[in-house]
Write a structure and sequence with these properties.
Length: about 400
């Protein structure tokens, strides 16, 4: 069933480095990773709900409790001086409980199957595991070390399609959008620990021993009153040793204690400003000799492959519409195409839900009618039995 017209994109007609729409020839472009054994099988399907069944087909995980690993290559390119757009559609149709929905982007690979799946440039997308982990990963490689965004970005975890988009810009900023709406952005310098700090605490300096940083002290002129009672419990003055108390058998008798009626509470001296206070000591800083500035932390010299490398407890996630491009117009077109898809998917889902409701309502009406007939029959039978009883009553009187 098709609710809206959406033309299928073909990789060959795209200006993007990668525009994967999973047509009938998708398997010719994708390679299974040899890095793990007993990987789960992918299948291509549009799922239960879609706008156009053929155009909306995507790569779906199909086996529970499995790792998945598959890669595709594309013409290598550098993002130097350009904005990079990475976007793809994810649909957790299985109502995911625990599993990844992200992609990894690698440098060009001589052997896709043998790719080290941890040697990626970028890892981007949702990761779900129970209510405690529902985040969007934005992990970037910097000088051989994977550095994760310090902000917490919430992921979608319902059963509908969602479009995840990452933009890296030449001004060293980034933006994460979901379904075409920005959810996070910022400076790569501020939100990632790529570079060592510009300044460090001077290792040659330490706080003086006589430095006073206590803001208040007890008032030395304040003393506890002589009649102040701090004893909470006292021996009960009315208690007496029982006459039959045997010290040899019962031990030494001790009178019980009671709350002290004269107790006035714990005493503490009044607090006053410390006349010796010198202020908060601040450790002097010096230029970090290990700091090296990088004008282009956004830039990668080599992009050439993309992989889906995830674990899923319950399978069913669909990956589709994977675009890697430096062309903003193509990224924007991808967002618009997604909105059309999402509208059609939602319409089909609503139609199915309405049909199911109508079916359930009809079934309930049938059950109600049947019950009404049965109740009517029981009432009629009861009336007949009552009439018969009335007819028999005079005969008993005659006896």
């Amino acid at each position: 069933m098709k609710f809206f017209v959406l033309a299928a994109s073909v990789a060959a007609a795209s200006a993007a480095a990668l525009n994967e729409q999973f047509d009938e020839n998708w398997a010719d472009r994708w390679t299974t990773s040899s890095g793990k054994e007993d990987l789960g099988e992918f299948k291509v399907t549009a799922g239960k709900y879609y706008n156009d069944e053929a155009a909306d087909a995507g790569l779906q995980t199909s086996e529970d409790a499995k790792f998945y690993g598959s890669l595709t290559g594309f013409d290598t390119f550098s993002s130097e001086g350009k904005s990079l757009f990475v976007q793809f559609r994810v649909k957790h149709e299985q109502d995911i409980d625990c599993g990844g929905g992200y992609v990894k982007i690698f440098p060009a690979q001589a052997d896709l199957a043998a790719t080290d799946m941890e040697s990626y440039n970028l890892m981007f997308g949702p990761d779900i595991c129970g209510p405690g982990t529902r985040k969007v990963h934005v992990i970037m490689d910097y000088n051989g070390e994977h550095v994760e965004n310090k902000k917490s970005i919430s992921a979608k975890y319902d059963v509908d399609s969602h479009l995840y988009q990452l933009t890296l810009s030449p001004d060293n900023t980034y933006e994460v959008a979901i379904d075409g709406e920005k959810v996070e952005s910022g400076s790569l310098y501020e939100d990632y620990d790529f570079l060592k700090p510009k300044e460090i605490k001077d290792p040659e300096v330490s706080k003086p021993d006589d430095w006073v940083d206590e803001t208040q002290i007890d008032d030395p002129e304040d003393a506890k009153p002589d009649d102040w009672v701090t004893e909470k419990q006292i021996t009960d003055p009315e208690a007496e040793q029982p006459e039959d108390w045997d010290e040899e058998m019962d031990g030494e008798w001790e009178a019980p204690t009671i709350d002290n009626p004269d107790y006035t509470g714990d005493w503490s001296a009044k607090r006053i400003d410390n006349p010796e206070y010198k202020g908060e000591w601040v450790h002097p800083e010096i230029a970090n000799p290990e700091y090296v500035h990088d004008d282009a932390v956004y830039d990668y010299a080599d992009f050439g492959a993309l992989g889906v490398d995830v674990w899923q407890v319950k399978s069913g996630t669909i990956f589709d519409s994977i675009i890697i491009t430096t062309d903003e117009a193509e990224a924007t077109a991808g967002v618009e195409a997604f909105k059309t898809l999402a509208e059609g998917e939602s319409a089909m889902k609503k139609e199915a839900e309405d049909a199911k409701k109508a079916e359930d309502d009809a079934k309930q009406a049938e059950e109600d009618a049947k019950k009404a007939e049965e109740d009517a029959a029981k009432d009629e039978e009861g009336e007949v039995d009552g009439d018969e009883a009335e007819e028999e009553e005079p005969a008993k009187d005659e006896l």
